Amino acid sequence: MSRRVGWLLLALLAAGPPLALAAGQPFYVDIMTRLVCLAAAATSLNFILGHGGMISFGHAAYIGIGAYAVGIPAYYGLHDGWLHLLLAVCCSALFALATGVIALRTRGVYFIMITMAFAQMVFFAIVSIEEYGGDDGLVIDIRSEFPLLDLEDGLTLYYVCFALLLGTLYLVHRLMRSRFGMVIEGAKGNERRMAALGFAFYRHRLAAYTLAGALCGLSGAMLGNFTNFISPEMMDWTRSGELIFMVVLGGAGALFGPLIGAAAFLLLEELLSGWTVYWQLPFGVLLILVVLFARGGLAGLLEGRRG
Amino acid sequence: MDAGLVAAQLLNGLQLGVLLFLLASGLTLIFGIMDFVNLAHGSLYMVGAYLCAELTDATGSFLLAVALALPATALVGAAVELLVVRRLYRRDHLDHVLATFGLILCFDALVQMIWGPEGMAIRLPAWADGQQHLPGGLVFPTYRLLIIGAGLAVAAGLYVLVVRTKLGMRIRAGASNPAMAGALGIDIGRLFTLVFALGAVMAGLAGMMIAPITEASIGMGNEIIITAFVVVIVGGIGSIRGAFVAALLIGLIDTMGRSFLDMALKLAMSAQAAETSAPALSAMLIYILMAAVLAFRPQGLFPPKTR
Q1: Residue B260's CATH number
Q2: A97 contact B CB<8A
Q3: Which of residues 231-250 of A touch B (CB under 8 A)?
Q4: What is the count of structural domains for chain A?
Q5: Does B132 reside within a domain?
Q6: Total number of domains constituting chain B
Q7: Which of the residues A146, A158, B180, B181 could staple to B186 if both were Cys, CB 3.0 to 4.6 A apart?
Q8: ipTM score of complex
């Protein structure tokens, strides 16, 4: 059932923007661009959180790193898109690798707090560099330049982001069917058993953690391109919390869970913030209720626990 | 280097360390005893600051306001425990962080509803507002000295409470084996509420003490809580002694790094390079320290014996 909703959402996202433009509502294209970028980021988080059981509370750092991998070269007049993407992937992967080596030696609550602290380290480092705007952020005048593609056109940008989402979903889908994915999932279920079976799952985990970081860096690069303005606020730890909420709301460990979660998240945000300036209050209450009463998230509900 | 400046910064570092201890000791107590990760601990810090600001306005006396705000913060903490936290003890850490993340959203919105989006300043009474001439020709604000003194007194009081009193004995029993403590006739449910309220009081006190310097503002807890997490990790989760040592260490390192790192770097590199890299590096210093500690001691400096 959640599969069907996921495919439905994808079909909607594939056909939606031209229809929105035809109806004279470019605003919806903006929302959908943000949605596909965040859904791609949440899908990369789901790979380690939902499938791997690694509760990373610092995933927004990679969004920030990816965004600054576009912003800082652009600040120096380098607009080559491939360079931006290469930088986004490499910097995110390197940061994930370096922090993962330490964080993955720990378990449980240590892991949560450490990933959070490392993300905050990047946050404060960027805040303190005044050359790149510090707290105030950085404006991206010209979007990444690719041959044949013009990202200044909203629709083109959207479909590039959409392709990234599809690619991320496909990659995670394939990985979870591979031996590598099975080891990750097995280690989540029972570490000792996996060790007894002879799997050195630390290395698998580190590879998964690095890959998830690199994928999220790409979403960050696209998000930076989309907003034309990047600031440390993009990687504040509360952003990481929102990503986790998207994953859990949709259903951790389900392929389309993060997509459904991100869609529900943005929808709620739009509805509630249009309704009251204090939208965070019903939002927070809802989050608590989801945790208390809807384990398995929306995907869990859709799987038919009704009967 | 000016010896007076170094001494003044040492005292500033000590002041930050004391505040961090007040926050971290509650976090580590709650984790050590209930195995509960409380992201919303920073919200109680904020609530304490706002209550104190409101009561200072109402009563005209800062001291009276603190005396009234402390039990009020305890009540808020107890209410949070009874309404939400209590239902989560049996859940995993992911549920803890998500639900308490929801609590943060609720608290931030509620404070904004009650006190508005602007911060609230607290005026210090005349006796606390001056300067003190310390031995060695050093001049230091009276109020900052009061913070250090009060913080150290609370730390001593907490030590006596946990080690010398009957309540402390129950707390330690609950920490090492809740099921056994319950079987021996200790009301575990009430003990947990009490410990949560105690943590809330200490977080609230930290907020009240800092508010006259920085003013009470929305989200004030969300930044310092990460530093408090670093303290808890470095000290060893569940260890109050570890939290004390780590809090002072991190308070001093952070403050000294921000003040003197550029001078230290100038010894090794050109003045310009030092001036650009020092702010970023000093912002990252405590996280680097955390990584270094974890690389050698994954359980922190003082891992509690019972775990």
Answers
A1: 1.10.3470
A2: no
A3: 237-238, 241, 244-245, 248
A4: 1
A5: no
A6: 1
A7: B181
A8: 0.84
